[in-house]
Amino acid sequence: MKFEDLITEINGFGRFQKMLLCISFVGRFTIPCHLLLSNFIAAIPSHHCDISSLDAEGIFGNLSREQKLTVSIPAQDDGTPASCHMFSYPQFHLLTNSSSSAELPVVQCQNGWEYDNSTFISTLATQWDLVCDNKGLNKAMTSIFFVGVMFGAHETLCMNKPIFCLACRFGRKPMLLVSCISGMVFALASIFSSSFIMFAVLRFFRTSLASLWRLVCIIDSMAWAVGSTSLSLIAFCIRDWRWLTVAVTSPLLLSTVLWWVPESARWLIANGKAEKAHYYLHKCAVMNCKEEVISKIKPEALSIIVTDGGKKHYSYLDLVRTPKMRRLALLTGTIWFCVATMTYGISLNITGFGLNMYLTQFVYGAIEIPSKLMVYYLLDKIGRRKTEAGAQLLAGVSLMINIFIPKDQWVGRTVVAVLGKGFAGAAFCTIVLYSSELYPTVLRQNGMGYNSFLGRLGVSVAPLVLLLDSFWGHLSQTILCSVALIASLVAWQLPETRDRCLPETIEDVEGTGKSLCICLAISDYQNACNVQ
């Protein structure tokens, strides 16, 4: 008997597993709030050069505020004051002459900026003047944060991050708790930052520290949609970046419920703690009304079950030792990088459509609910490959359409962008399940860790892609569209796994294996879920 067979015998998706799924939902709820927090705390409100020093010198006399701006700051095409320049000296003739000010001498802002506080009380941009020449630091901070995610142990801790795989040594449960608690500490510490560099460092450290059935994958991903939608409501009520950070960090106190999550039985057995593993398996069996199954197995027998056939140690190098494994790693890695870049490129752009940013964030989160439900249906009907490739294609087409829609037609642009966000979310959800089925059992953890790493690399690149709009207004959308279409083409090169036997060894992938493979037909899965 294999360990997977034992889990199935004690009802692999019974009340015990459903309880764990609910507990993990609580922990994952806060993840999108932190990953997308920069949409609000790093927002750049309307601003213009601060002319209070000129006013203090009495240069303006009895001029109204509008008149002061007219003679001090050039007007943009839409009539609003320029954000980064001011006249080298007051142009009083503009009060009586409405001629263009384009030819008048200007200089960069000399005494800082004055910000519109009607939407935000305070943001990172207003705190440290991250505007004009320093505007890129806003996106750089977001990239720094995601680099921390890439090297750290975030929500995919159990997927074995390539660098800091402390969970393999100290156990999944303690490292999960450490990740949540340290994240909360660094997030709260960041609100006391006295400089932008200090804030960026603390944001970096905020993040640096089995079975994927389709139903579990979909339900778990719903936590993202709920968290993303909730972020817009929280941000709407709290307009100061410090208090907003506190608000989205405080729920991490609920991570203490993770103390009730049992340690991985497989990890306990592999580390010589069979007695404790047997204890947790017994609790699982009792809750699932399968106590008679575990009562027949002694603790010492568990070691044999887990270690049987697993004497060989596999590493990340095994992902590239053989031809077909190399090809698989290249294809899945490319898709993870592309889908992550595209998804976050859309998610981090909530101000480019003319719609209220809070409403955009809310709709972006809400669209993921029907998107994930659609994935649940399509995985069974048309398979993984068509679902992944189709979702990527439709996301790319949505991005392409928005390139040609005039920017003043903000309703149409927003509708298309929301559809693109839904397709991007569907593609991300699908590739997680799809990848876990493509890799053989002996390399699944390594393969998912490798893919997750490349995905986080793509996320880190996304904010920098958005900066390219300063060169051409549609450049970032063109790049994201191209990335989505490339990922769609690559996805078509992957084999279908629906109703197929999944590989256990590298030899099975290479087509030279003789071992039995694990068959995860959808009907078998549904039957397992119906067992109470």
TrEMBL record:
GO annotation, cellular component aspect: membrane
Membrane topology label: Multi-pass membrane protein
One term of GO molecular function: transmembrane transporter activity
Main location: membrane
Coiled coil: none
Pfam family, one: Sugar_tr
InterPro entries for this protein: MFS_sugar_transport-like, MFS_trans_sf
Keywords tagged on the record: Membrane, Transmembrane, Transmembrane helix
Record has Membrane as a keyword: yes
Bilayer-crossing regions: 175-205, 212-235, 241-261, 328-346, 358-377, 411-436, 474-492
Localisation per UniProt entry: Membrane
Protein name: Solute carrier family 22 member 7b, tandem duplicate 3
Species assigned in the record: Sinocyclocheilus rhinocerous
